[in-house]
Design brief:
The structure is a single chain. By secondary structure, the protein is of the alpha/beta class. The protein has two domains: 63 residues, Phospho-2-dehydro-3-deoxyheptonate aldolase, domain 1 (Alpha-Beta Plaits, 2-Layer Sandwich); 250 residues, TIM Barrel. The protein contains eleven helices and 14 strands. The longest helix has 17 residues. Bound molecules: phosphoenolpyruvate and manganese (II) ion. Manganese (II) ion binds next to loops.
């Protein structure tokens, strides 16, 4: 249920409605807007029958029934786009944001060299895995805490926020301490205790779509995070499993406009894990931005042939520079600047 307050409703009116909702055994979520406040209600399993108790309260304009199973993340609850702030970078605003870096942190040198290159070409957030969810138990699983220290050093010395994956509740406090965004990987998209734990974090969350998850499953997973209080969630389309095996996964570009209409949360795309091969990343990155994505997360490695993880899908820095130039032009065509790059001079 969504309660829309009238434009003259006072904070006391809003609190009175919230108290009534709590009294009915549900949870109120006040969402102040530019002209009026809306109050979302969660915690009910079926339809709320006592709507007249609420609609009679002073300051209430309208009581709307929401039939979708996800509520807080839906556009029905909040029409305006959510802008997620990470340091001085805004994801989901007018600009397109590019996150880049190695699949996994292999050494301090490898991370710093990649970070310097991607920042020089316009990336505004640096990625790097510290804890890696590998398909085989015998593969390299990341440097763990050592990598977290290198990531924090990148943030301090290069002034760029960093993102890394958190795989379990046990390491969450450590990851939270060192990273600016908490990444929930595709394999953990439906790890509900983990979703609830990051929902109580003060750090923004990047939630990747599970490779067998529908758009609705993704929105419901995001709802778990937001329902715990953390509204700073970015969604990531990273490819799903289909019958076709021409690429590592099938990048579901059609999900981008669908998500953008269903939710107010920012949506970014990972063309690296979706494609699995470096030569497909630039076309898919261009297409993702053309389809309306708010940003990209891309794997870059100084020497992909020697990468311990995902080398075949990593761009070398020179190719990353080309990708940035092309993506900037595609973004300009739909009137979006690339965050962190001097705007293109057009018409000359
Ligand atoms: C990653 O981005 O490091 C990763 C493992 O991706 P995904 O969870 O999408 O497979
Ligand atoms: Mn990877």
């Amino acid at each position: 249920m969504l309660i829309v307050m009238d434009a003259h409703a006072t904070p006391e009116h809003v609190e009175r409605v919230c108290a009534e909702i709590r009294d009915l055994g549900y949870a109120p979520h006040p969402m102040p807007g530019p002209t009026r406040t809306a109050i979302g209600v969660t915690g009910n399993e079926g339809a709320i029958v006592q709507t007249s108790r609420i609609s009679a309260l002073p300051g209430v304009l309208e009581v709307i029934r929401i039939t979708k199973p996800y509520k807080l993340v839906s556009r029905d609850f909040k029409e305006a786009d959510t802008v997620v702030s990470v340091g001085n970078v805004e994801i989901g605003g007018p600009g397109v944001v590019v996150i880049a870096g190695p699949c996994t942190v292999e050494s301090r040198e490898q991370l710093f060299s990649t970070a310097r290159d991607v920042i020089a070409h316009g990336a505004t957030v640096v990625r790097g895995g510290a804890y890696k969810p590998r398909t085989s138990p015998y593969s390299f699983h990341g440097l763990g805490e050592e990598a977290l220290h290198y990531l924090a050093e990148v943030r301090e010395q290069l002034g760029t926020p960093v993102i890394t994956e958190v795989m379990d509740k046990a390491t969450l406090p450590l990851v939270e301490q060192h990273a600016d965004i908490l990444q929930i990987g595709a394999r953990n998209m439906q790890n509900y205790p983990l979703l609830k734990a990051v929902g109580r974090s003060h750090r923004p969350v990047l939630l990747k779509r599970g490779f067998a998850a529908t758009v609705k499953d993704l929105l419901l997973a995001a709802e778990y995070v937001v329902a715990e209080g953390n509204k700073q969630v970015v969604l990531c389309e990273r490819g799903i499993r289909t019958f076709d095996d021409h690429s590592r996964f099938t990048l579901d570009l059609g999900a981008i406009p669908v998500l953008k209409s269903m939710t107010h949360l920012p949506v970014i795309v990972d063309p690296s894990h979706a494609s699995g091969y470096a030569d497909r990343i630039i076309p898919m990155a261009r297409a993702a931005i053309a389809a309306g994505a708010d940003g990209l997360i891309v794997e870059v490695h100084p020497n992909p042939a020697f990468a311990v993880c995902d080398g075949e899908q990593s761009l070398v820095p020179e190719r990353f520079a080309q990708m940035m130039q092309q993506v900037e032009r595609v973004a300009a065509a739909i009137d979006r600047p690339l965050v962190g790059r001097t705007p293109l001079v057009t018409g000359v």
